[in-house]
């Protein structure tokens, strides 16, 4: 495992001696010499690592409890999850972290809203199960700066978090503490989800791709710069059967 770039918070996991403004060339991360890693997720100032043993490790900024643990921040250390859950997917928001367990549950820690109090119900000082998914089995997760999407095994998308730009796809701009299903997609089983900073992409089984949220740079692909509060079909791709997507900021 190699790391390079900005490392002011130790997010590269290189250890305290390497905490500096910039690592200009790839450096081997010593921790992973003896700990095989199968998946990485990065935010602005923290990182998650999923090891071959199916446990999550974290490094970097912990101002918002986004590491999910105490201890050293510049070296990857294990995040203790509820019921010692094992993990299949990890994702980072701006100031929070999520993971998908083998049992189909979402665990969250840190601050989805960017606040270090729980006045809004979106601050998780330690790892806990994300509310709103009782009786649901999640098969994929995605995280934006301040929102979360979860895809269930029946093809339903659930959304939670901040929603100033309509990135939750719920038809409004109201923040959502507990995950709610995106109702307008009923009848269109979903197979893939992705999040940008403040927008979301959703792909149906038929290959149709929908977008919602912030669109000031045309990131929704809808031919304009108007934000959308509902998932909207990207008509420029309607002749294509899309199976995968990825979002930048």
UniProtKB/TrEMBL annotation:
RCC repeat residues: 1-53, 54-103, 104-154, 155-206, 207-249
Annotated Pfam families: WD40_RLD
Keyword RNA-binding in record: no
InterPro entries assigned: RCC1-like_dom (IPR058923), RCC1/BLIP-II (IPR009091), Reg_chr_condens (IPR000408), Signaling_Regulatory_Domain (IPR051625)
Keywords carried by this UniProt record: Repeat
Domain RCC1-like: from-to ranges: 2-248
Keyword Nucleotide-binding: no
Protein name: RCC1-like domain-containing protein
Gene source species: Adineta ricciae
